[in-house]
Amino acid sequence: MAKITINGKSCEFDGSPSILDVAIENGIDIPRYCYHEGLSVVASCRICLAEVWAPNPRSGQLEAIPRLMPTCQTPCGDGQIVRTDSPKAVANQKAVMEYLLINHPLDCPICDQAGECYLQDYSYEYGRGESRFEEAKIKQPKKDVGPHIYLYSDRCIMCSRCVRFTREVTGTSELCIVGRGSSEQIDLFPGMALDNELSGNVADICPVGALLDKDFLFQQRVWFLTRTPSIDGLTASGDNISIEHNQGQIYRVKPRRNLAVNKWWISDELRYGWNFIHSDTRLGEPRKTQYGDQVGTNFSAAYDEIHERISTVAASGGKVAALVSPMLSCEEAYLMGKWVRSACKEPAQAILGVGPVPVSGQDKTFPPGASADDKNAFTIRSEKAPNARGVRRVLHAFNKIDGDGAAPLEYDKWITAIKDAEIVILTGNYPSEWITKDLAKAMNRKYVILIDTLPNDFTSKANVLLPAATWAEKSGTFENVNGVLQAFEQAIAPREGSRGEGQIFTDLMGRQAVATNGHGWPRFNASAVREEMAEKLSLTAFATEVKSPDAGSFIESDMELVDL
After folding, report:
1. Are 207 and 404 in contact (CB under 8 A)?
2. In this model, does residue 516 exceed pLDDT 90?
């Protein structure tokens, strides 16, 4: 295998990657501004220049290339020696930093990029440490370029990442470079706004504080935020994200790099669609119907009510129907099916079905005209449920246990099949209205147990209402549109008065266990449930295929549940 030596470290490579690519792969830090792995290479910032020695093809002797070479654009060659820490390369780094800071404003204390700014970091690591500039700085305007983004032009270093993003990724080309020299700046084409469905990504790729997210502006200092790896809980894409939060409050959602799923990007739908998690309308206490009116209660009393009612119906041979929402994790779907089946005397008494799967429009691939199979394409999915395939996989495994192996009942067929059911258990967790007229009609004269997060037509009519947690408040596994199983971690504690569905079903099974054999109260553990699924349902994929987030990239929370 070919080898190259970068700053004294020998590195192996295949093909013809750039020197910078190999350095990044081997953990060697080379400063860069304009370079981004997902964009074309323009080599305009010049801070990654290095001294390169290459073998002479005739003599085989190492010879120095007479000028500094941009490592982002220079391909590796076998036997090359590269130095970014030589006196010549270091002098260039100091010169570039001094040039970039000439007109940069001294507003780090009020800049949202402070704490994650390349200018701050590189000024400390590669800069002179003092300014020799005595003239007045050129002041550029602040611009409102779109519904989500502000452009602070005087902070811009003209790396052109944002311009290349709108040309190469979204294909919308709203941004351009106008002017020359010291008057050069990023601007919008006349009559256009930065209003595409991936616009928030320009704030992520901006290496300085020029492009800022309006939603996060002046909300929180980044060094106070805890970053928890998670998965898209709103659509079927399975995009990898980081939920950034402090003291139980989510402040922003950003993409995590996963070349097999979402590359480096996420949609604005996901980036800004989590706000319902902190909605004032969230359900905040269990409720039950008493003498015709719904009254507040606690989880313990609600569990007693559910256990008593299901035990009575099951003893008489009645049927219990359960609608498993595609917003639930695989572990929660398993526990729900397990609980309902265990509460009934015979498996045939339990009617399990998949909740409605919202679809909006059609899949949209960027850049326009690209195939979804293109390695550089990014697709926004029309299916607005994160785990329909995972729920079907689990319910199908339950059917195999019964011997028929039939596919799980889809929403419309489930509604038809529950005519004789006496108890119906509904799970929602949708960020918007999901109750249909057919479902409302099918619920007439039935005992309804609803587990949900937001108010809907049933929350005031359900016989028992249990407030649930959103995906950001629990852990589990989602299966995306391509069948990839990915685990996600709990970011924040559930809203006061609510619990994750996994914990609710664990509690309900614990209630049954206490009634039968005196067992104590178990606590929901997603990894333990995955092991049980692999063993009990022969779902070996949950033991071998689940992609777990990097354990070193987040801080695990140690949250205790309130005793029942």
Report:
1. no
2. no
pLDDT of residue 562: 36
Q: Tell me how far apart the alpha carbons of residues 327 and 454 are, in angstroms, rounded to a whole number.
A: 13
Whether the per-residue pLDDT at 517 is higher than 70: the answer is no
Helix (H) or strand (E) holding 287: strand 287-290
Q: What is the DSSP string of 441-477?
A: HHTTTSEEEEEESS--TTTTT-SEEEEB--GGGS-EE
Amino acid at 121: D
Q: DSSP string spanning 234-275? A: SSTT--EEEEEEETTEEEEEEE--BTTTTBT---HHHHHTTG
Domains of the chain: residue spans and CATH: 2-95 (3.10.20.740), 102-218 (3.30.70.20), 287-357+386-553 (3.40.50.740)
Q: Tell me what pLDDT residue 264 has.
A: 95
The answer to whether 327 and 298 are in contact (CB under 8 A) is no
pLDDT at 552 over 70: no
State the Cα–Cα distance between residues 246 and 115, nearest whole angstrom: 16
Residue 268, token pair as written in the block: 């604005």
Query: CB–CB of 298/286 below 8 Å?
Result: yes
Does the structure show a pLDDT above 80 at 398?
A: yes
The encoded tokens of residue 488 equal: 């996600």
Spatial strand order of the sheet with 211-213 comes to: 142-144, 149-152, 211-213
pLDDT by residue (tens digit) across 434-443?
Answer: 988 899 999 9
The yes-or-no verdict on residue 563 having pLDDT over 60 is: no
Query: Residue by residue, what is the 3-state secondary structure of 5-58?
Result: EECCEEEEECCCCEHHHHHHHCCCCCCCCCCCCCCCCCCCCCCCEEEEEEECCC
pLDDT value, residue 513:
54
Q: Chain-centre distance of CA 87, in angstroms?
A: 43
pTM of structure: 0.90
Q: Per-residue confidence at 373, pLDDT binned at 50, 70, 90?
A: confident
Half-sphere exposure of 408 (CA within 13 A, CB side): 28
